[in-house]
Amino acid sequence: MPDISRRRFLQSVGVSASGVGVAGSVYAAGEATVPAASAAPQASAGHAVKFKVNGTLQSLTVASNAVLLDVLRDQLHLTGTKKGCDHGQCGACTLHVNGVAVNACLSLAVMHDGDEITTIEGLARDGTLHPVQQAFWDHDAYQCGYCTAGQMMSAVGVLGDKRIPADDAAVREAMSGNICRCGAYRNIVAAIQDARGKIKGA
Question: Where's the 2Fe-2S ferredoxin-type domain (predicted)?
Answer without folding.
Answer: 47-123
